[in-house]
Amino acid sequence: MAEGMNCEDVRDLLFMFLNNELDEELEEVIDHLARCPECRLALREHMKLSGLLYRTMPYVARTCYSAWN
Ligand SMILES: [Zn+2]
Predict the structure, then answer these.
(1) How far is the CA of 55 from the centre of ligand 1 (A)?
(2) What is the tens place of the pLDDT at every residue in 3-60?
(3) Terminal CA-to-CA distance of the chain, rounded, Å?
(4) How far does residue 15's CA lie from ligand 1's centre (Å)?
(5) What is the model's pTM?
(6) What distances in angstroms separate CA 20 from CA 10, 13, 23, 39, 63, one per listed residue?
(7) Phi-psi domain of 51 (left: phi exceeds 0; alpha: psi -120 through 50; beta: other)
(8) Ligand 1 centroid, distance to 14 Cα (angstroms)
(9) Containing H/E element for 34?
(10) Cα-to-centroid distance, 69 and ligand 1 (Å)
(11) How many Å lie between the centroid of ligand 1 and the Cα of residue 4?
């Protein structure tokens, strides 16, 4: 995991991230999101699309989300 994921990889995994379905990719997705404002924006769009609210987000997503905002 020298280079981590690119934006395309991460976008494909956002729904899984929000559903707490990531396992080995989780660290890399979090790592990328922490560094990439565009993917965080995409994450917010995914939240809107799936009707996910901050308080109903899975714990992992919620923790990261609050750290980034
Ligand atoms: Zn990105």
Answers:
(1) 24
(2) 679 999 999 999 899 888 999 999 999 999 999 999 999 998 888 888 877 777 777 7
(3) 26
(4) 14
(5) 0.79
(6) 14, 10, 8, 17, 12
(7) left
(8) 11
(9) helix 26-35
(10) 16
(11) 11
